[in-house]
Input
Amino acid sequence: HGSFYRVSTHATLMIAGGERTGIPRGLVIEEPYDSLSFVPTMMALTGQMRAGQPVPVLWRRGFRPFPGRVIQELFSDAKVRPQPVATGGER
Output
């Protein structure tokens, strides 16, 4: 800690899968990712990113692509596709 170098930001991320999440239970991610992958992955899991870009309602509000990679293995066998929760109707 005390540094912003990518190597010093490694941590363990555990996500509970299940039939309603579309994430297979017991999935093991073999490739290392760093903490910069957290936000883009959470945005993708909640349907707020498509093809690496924030959904249109978030783009209009100033969101831009986040640094880091989406953990694609979480989506490889997904039977449930995430639906956006931001609709643009709220103020």
In short: The mean pLDDT is 77.
